Amino acid sequence: MFKILLSKMKEALISVLPVTVIVLVISFTPLVNLSVTETVAFAVSAVGLIIGIALFNLGADLAMTPMGGHVGSGLTKSKKVFILLSVCFVMGLLITIAEPDLSVLANQVKDIMPGGATAGKWLLIITVGVGVGVFLVIAVLKIIFHKDLSSLVMFFYLMLFALCAILAENGKFGLLPLSFDSGGVTTGPITVPFIMALGVGISATVGGRDSNENSFGLIALCSVGPIIAVMALSLMSKGDLGTYDVSQYAIENYLGAHFGFLILDKLKDVAIALGLIVGFFLILQFAILKLPKQKLIQIAIGIGYTFFGLVIFLVAVEVGFMPIGFKIGKQIAEFNQPLLVVLGFVLGMVVVLAEPAVHVLNKQVEQITNGGVKKIEMLVALSVAVGISIGLSLLRMIFKFSILYYLIPGYIISLGLSFFVPKIYTAIAFDSGGVASGPLTSSFILPLAIGACDAAAGNANVYSLAFGVVAMVAMTPLITIQLLGFKAVMSSKVRAKITMRRILAADDEQIIYFK
């Protein structure tokens, strides 16, 4: 166990260190003026973030992934489809409530939700959870009845853009970027292992010649659900969102006596979120699953790691990364806006290079394509693409235009590519949308964009111009992976043609006949 924890610590260190180094280097330049308190708080928070992510990922491996696999295979073997679908809905809801990336996002927009403050935060989280639950049911039905992912994805994205038109017609366009961001943050480090394991468990039990392909696509569909759910919630919000409250990014709010209250608040939130998951799983255990004691002990230990990792992660994010990301974005936007775009590109490249899930994805794609797409090829392509997506997001903020000018062409290209590449590439690409938008995107890149927007466009435009950066990062793999798949397919066809031409052009006199 200790060796595994060290391995997780190494992954988390690689994930957090590049951004930390860039921020500390910038703090010693005239571009940004950070106080000693802010610099120390950021450095300590970076250490806390490394520990939190490591414990959290270890807990996900020990608890969330096995829970997903056991629920998927155990309920499918029972051949009670209604029970399977009901459990998938509830587990999708509860797992999403515990998702740290969603909690970070909800804290930043809770004031504009109906009910405001704490009630608004939980309303957004539960709304997103319901969206995930409903679309997890749809994804499970896709596996059971062997339906094509591409046609489902195309249908639901067409529905999304129809809802965009309804929002515009009703003057509720302001929350559109937040709606798309909700889809990106939902597929985080708790949700992804559980849902992928659930898909593998169900697909392996159902069987069929396309069982490996059918196990993909759950994340893709579960990313659509929150977008539709938040769009529906937007119809209930007021049309004029007003000014954005930037006081939440003041580091003084989290130091001194406030620090103790922050820890207690996070302990309570995480206990509620994980307690709901554990309670429901225990009901399934006694009623249906009947797992051996050893498995339950492993899952219990994993829940413990997840709990402490999640608390440390959320505290570190709020104390160090969100306030510093906001201040860097604000001060660089005031100093030089083109430089801000360059910084966004560099940070985008670093963030995706450092994301451990990206390296797992790269290895997976290389294996599936039998080397047709190399790991280094994937890494470079994703790195550049995510850097460009963040740079473009900041450029949109400077020139003040709608995010739909990016999203509509982007999704048209990604959906169009699905007709020209093998289905496995499309499934992996749409599943990977949440992989690139990891913990650092919502906890650092988004506050940086909000700070920049506050300086360059005014905080009245934050909801329409700063939000949407997570959605841009999540859209990147959809195009990148399918383009690499298209390249691999075309290269294979060219090689086959060259080989056939050489065979047909061979000199018969060089053929040796054996008698």
Tally of separate helices = 21
Radius of gyration: 23 Å
Give the rounded overall mean pLDDT.
84
Overall geometric form: globular
Beta strand count? 0
SSE pattern, N- to C-terminal: HHHHHHHHHHHHHHHHHHHHH
Strand content: under 5%
Q: Pick out the low-confidence regions.
A: none
Helix proportion of residues, in percent?
over 70%
- Supply the helix-strand structural class: mainly alpha
- Measured between the Cα atoms of the first and last residue, the distance is 65 Å
Main sheet specs = none
Outline the structure in words:
Helix content is 80%, strand content 0%. The chain is mainly α. α3 (81-97) runs antiparallel to α11 (257-289) and α13 runs antiparallel to α19 (439-456). The radius of gyration is 23 Å and the shape is globular.
Q: Keywords for this structure?
A:
515 residues, 80% helix, mainly alpha
Offer a concise description of the structure:
With 515 residues, the protein is mainly alpha-helical. 80% of the residues lie in helices and 0% in strands. The protein contains 21 helices and no strands.
